[in-house]
Amino acid sequence: METLKVEKVSIVSHRNMEDENEHKVHIRNQALQLFMRYGARSVSMDDIASAVGSSKKTIYQYYTDKDQLVGDAIEKALSDNCLQCKTYHQIADNAVHEGFLAIEQTSELFRNMNPVLINDLKKYHPRAYRKFLDYKNEFIYDVIVANIKWGIEEGLYRDDFDIDIIAQFRVGSIDILFMPEFYSKVKEGMFLIQQEVFYFFLHGMATPKGLKLIEKYKKHKPKNNSDAKD
């Protein structure tokens, strides 16, 4: 009888832990949506509590302060993007196709993103901002380098430029998109701006063979494993 009681308590405890984890994930996801839409600074813990449908006191049971919540939310966004990048590399037909798959996903991200978010992280949440910088300067840089090398091997990109310089240039162009002096003067939305930057970057590397693929994908933008072939 004692053994049965212990097993019953263990099962209940496990279920409670799952419920607690689900609630924490719900808080993080709701907070991320708010941060993406309004930026981090203008969103209060009261706003997050209202979106979650619970009290602010409940949120503080999972997060000691807003800074911790911001960090968790940003880490989730970066983790999701990392997984998507790896998936695109696996399903892409070629290097150009991989770029178009990534830019479609990024466009959707920027449609729902307020450019002030990155500046808010830089000013008020340095630990979260450091996560963003590390991700951009390390993972995204590596993804770009791998894509360039793949494209050169396929004869889609030229082989007469310094890969590191061009990859660093592409990574640096991401920062420009979030500069207030830039996005405040450009009427187009963020997703259109980064799309134009991508096209400019791609055309600069492409061979005549690559240019043909670029034009094909521009007319029929792939959203998954497109059947457009080399």
Produce a short descriptive summary.
The chain is mainly α and 230 residues long.
What keyword list fits this structure?
0% strand; single chain; Tetracycline Repressor, domain 2; disordered C terminus; 230 residues; mainly alpha
Could you characterize what this model shows?
It comes from Niabella pedocola. It holds the Pfam family TetR_N. This is TetR/AcrR family transcriptional regulator. InterPro entries: Homeodomain-like_sf, HTH_TetR, Tet_transcr_reg_TetR-rel_C_sf. Keywords: DNA-binding. With 230 residues, this protein is mostly helical. Helix 1 crosses helix 2 and helix 4 packs parallel to helix 7. The protein contains eleven helices and no strands. Helix content is 77%, strand content 0%. The protein has a domain of 155 residues: Orthogonal Bundle (Tetracycline Repressor, domain 2), CATH 1.10.357.10. The chain is elongated, with a radius of gyration of 22 Å. The C terminus is likely disordered.
